[in-house]
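Hypothesis: this fold can be encoded by more than one sequence.
Test: take the structure tokens below, design a sequence, compare later.
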């Protein structure tokens, strides 16, 4: 089984260490009234700023690792996601998040190996 990390947790349960550091991005959310007017001028009504998104990649997982990781996400519309505080490598914070989608390839049924699990965790 892969090592677990306390830096990333779902509902207080540690996640397996990913292959590389997760990709972190921030996005502003605009209201549905945002857009261009008849003269082409853009009008933005920002509802929320800097909504976080973390992209995780696991190149190879055993049946056991795959079941553990997907079990952390199963049946939850939202969950408490522990992650490093942006700008600090020593502190963590907890955000309410959801998993947008995930994809995986079945690599070897005889050996119980899975490849290329990718998913995003997005702040609510």
């Amino acid at each position: 089984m892969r090592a677990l990390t306390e830096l990333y947790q779902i509902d207080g349960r540690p996640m397996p260490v990913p292959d590389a550091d997760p990709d972190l991005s921030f996005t502003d959310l605009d209201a549905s009234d945002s857009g261009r007017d008849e003269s082409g001028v853009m009008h933005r009504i920002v509802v929320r700023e800097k909504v976080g998104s973390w992209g995780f990649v696991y190149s190879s997982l055993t049946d056991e690792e795959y079941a553990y990781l997907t079990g952390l996400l199963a049946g939850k519309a939202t969950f408490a996601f522990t992650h490093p505080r942006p700008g600090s490598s020593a502190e963590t914070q907890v955000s309410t998040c959801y998993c947008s989608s995930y994809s995986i390839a079945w690599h070897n049924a005889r050996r119980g190996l899975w490849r290329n699990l990718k998913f995003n965790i997005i702040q609510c």
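The first strand starts at residue 4 and ends at 10. The chain has one domain: 9-123.
Hypothesis status: open.
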